[in-house]
Design brief:
CATH superfamily of the largest domain: CBS-domain
Number of strands: 12
Helix content: 25-40%
Strand order of the largest sheet: 9-10-8-11-12
Strand content: 25-35%
Distance between the termini: 38 Å
Structural class: alpha+beta
Largest sheet: 5 strands, antiparallel
CATH class of the largest domain: Alpha Beta
CATH architecture of the largest domain: Roll
Length: 227
C-alpha cells in the first residue's frame, strides 16, 4: 500500500510572511491539523498545533487583551513555523511512513512528486484509516492471536487448518515484539468459517501454539481459548 493511495490532496497553506493571527484563523476555520508554509512557491516550513502553542508564550499571561492582539498581528508565520519540514514521496509505503512519523514525532508530512512539487499530505489519521483497512476493520469473522516457533511452515500449518474449514484470510500480521527469542507473534483475521465449525478449528490451532487468544466478532466475545 502506497502513500499515493491514502494521502489527502486538499492542501492548506500560507505564506511565510503572513501573521500568526491569520494562520490561526485559517487553521481554525478549516479544521486542519497542519498548514504548509511557502515562500515564493517554495515549501519552507510547516505549522502544526505545537507551533501555535509555542506562539502562546508565557508573557501573554501578563498582557491585556489589546496587547496580545497587537503581538499576534505582528509575529510572522516564519517565526513560529517548523523549518525544513519532513517530507515523503508518493511511492513510500504506508508502513514506512508510519515509522517516519513516529520516529520524528510529527503528526503529518507533505507528499512530493518526482519533481519535488507538493501534491498532498499524509497524517496520522490517514495511517489509522489504512490500519483499519488492512486489519479488516468491521469485517465479521474472527481474529486469532498466537505465538509460534520462528521456523518454516509453522504459520503455513495453521493456514492449512483454516482452509480445511473453508476459511478465508483477510490478513496476516507478524511481529517479534514481546515474545521469547526463537518465536514470533502472529495475528490472523479469518472469515467465511461456519460458526458450527469454529470450535473444532480453534482446537486444532491450539495444538500448534502455547496460547491462543481469540476475538469473535460474530458473538462479540474475546479471550484466551480453552478447549
Amino acid at each position: 500500500m502506497l502513500v499515493k493511495n491514502w494521502m489527502g490532496t486538499e492542501i492548506r497553506s500560507i505564506n511565510a510572511d503572513e501573521t500568526i493571527e491569520r494562520a490561526a484563523k485559517l487553521h481554525k476555520d478549516n479544521n486542519t491539523g497542519v498548514l504548509l508554509v511557502f515562500d515564493n512557491s517554495k515549501l519552507v516550513g510547516i505549522v502544526a498545533d505545537k507551533d501555535f502553542a509555542k506562539a502562546s508564550v508565557s508573557e501573554f499571561l501578563t498582557m491585556d487583551k489589546r496587547e496580545v492582539q497587537h503581538l499576534l498581528s505582528t509575529i510572522k508565520v516564519r517565526q513560529i513555523m517548523s523549518h525544513h519540514p519532513l517530507t515523503v514521496t508518493r511511492e513510500h509505503t504506508m508502513d514506512e511512513t508510519a515509522e517516519i512519523l513516529l520516529k520524528h514525532k510529527v503528526s503529518a508530512a507533505p507528499v512530493l512528486d518526482d519533481d519535488g512539487k507538493v501534491v498532498g499530505i499524509i497524517n496520522r489519521n490517514d495511517i489509522l484509516q489504512f490500519l483499519k483497512s488492512v486489519t479488516g476493520g468491521d469485517q465479521i469473522g474472527y481474529q486469532l492471536n498466537f505465538s509460534v516457533p520462528d521456523k518454516a511452515n509453522c504459520i503455513t500449518e495453521i493456514i492449512n487448518i483454516i482452509k480445511d474449514y473453508t476459511g478465508r484470510i483477510w490478513n496476516i500480521v507478524c511481529s517479534y515484539h514481546g515474545v521469547s527469542y526463537g518465536f514470533r507473534r502472529v495475528s490472523i483475521r479469518v472469515y467465511n468459517v461456519d460458526p458450527d465449525n469454529i470450535l473444532e478449528l480453534l482446537k486444532r490451532v491450539k495444538e500448534k501454539t502455547p496460547e491462543l487468544y481469540v476475538i469473535d466478532y460474530i458473538q462479540n466475545t474475546r479471550g484466551v481459548f480453552k478447549d
